[in-house]
Amino acid sequence: MKRAPLEIADVIMITPHLIADSRGYFSEVFKAAWFNEHIADAVFLQDNQSLSAQAGTIRGLHFQMEPFAQGKLVRAIAGRLFDVAVDLRGGSPTYGKWVGVELSADNGKQLWIPPGFAHGFATLEPNSIIHYKVTAPYSAAHDRGIRWNDPAIGVEWPVSSEAALLSDKDRQQPFLGQSPYYFHYRSLKQEA
């Protein structure tokens, strides 16, 4: 596996090694010992998967508050998606900044998004399936979000506002400036 830090260094792209021949391919997509040594000391408690039937579906920007803050290891197992992480760690030098990458079944890339970040994605093909491992279980009481098209964040989505397919919940999320600091950079760094 290869690792590549992105513009926000704590968000890391992982590219598993692929062994291919005339029959197809084999790939180790997750190894706990390698992940803990090269990415983060994390324990994954749950795997999630969602299908978006139409291209242009946007889900996010979502996160959970402590004590259910989630680190996520994200990959596409069908189709293509534009995956986004937004730094919500108060005091971070990259607070309010975002990174985005294309994940697809073809490229096999994965994205590690640590706790303290909001996560969202836009589907680029019909019937795209996202699969992600999380470090904490879902808690409705701790579920929060930030407006997907907040101009203060400025995510450059590959889907126009008019064409985006969103849930009512995601259309009504607060803007970053309306939200308290849910995470603090120093305390998260000290725990790592």
Automatic annotation (TrEMBL):
Q: Which residues bear the site annotation Participates in a stacking interaction with the thymidine ring of dTDP-4-oxo-6-deoxyglucose?
A: Y138
Q: What is the lineage of its organism?
A: Bacteria, Pseudomonadati, Pseudomonadota, Alphaproteobacteria, Hyphomicrobiales
Q: Which domain of life is it from?
A: Bacteria
Task: Identify the EC number(s).
Answer: 5.1.3.13
Q: What species does this protein belong to?
A: Methylocella tundrae
GO CC, sorted alphabetically, is: cytosol
Instruction: Extract one GO molecular function annotation from the record.
Output: dTDP-4-dehydrorhamnose 3,5-epimerase activity
Q: What does this protein do?
A: Catalyzes the epimerization of the C3' and C5'positions of dTDP-6-deoxy-D-xylo-4-hexulose, forming dTDP-6-deoxy-L-lyxo-4-hexulose.
This protein's assembly is summarised as: Homodimer.
Q: What is this protein called?
A: dTDP-4-dehydrorhamnose 3,5-epimerase
Q: Does the keyword Isomerase apply?
A: yes
* Reaction catalysed by this enzyme: dTDP-4-dehydro-6-deoxy-alpha-D-glucose = dTDP-4-dehydro-beta-L-rhamnose
One Pfam family per UniProt: dTDP_sugar_isom
Q: Name one GO biological process term.
A: dTDP-rhamnose biosynthetic process
The pathway this protein participates in, as annotated, is: Carbohydrate biosynthesis; dTDP-L-rhamnose biosynthesis
Q: Which UniProt keywords apply?
A: Isomerase
Q: Which InterPro entries match?
A: RmlC-like, RmlC-like_jellyroll, RmlC_Cupin_sf
- Residues at the catalytic site: H62 (proton acceptor), Y132 (proton donor)
Per the record, the similarity remark reads:
Belongs to the dTDP-4-dehydrorhamnose 3,5-epimerase family.
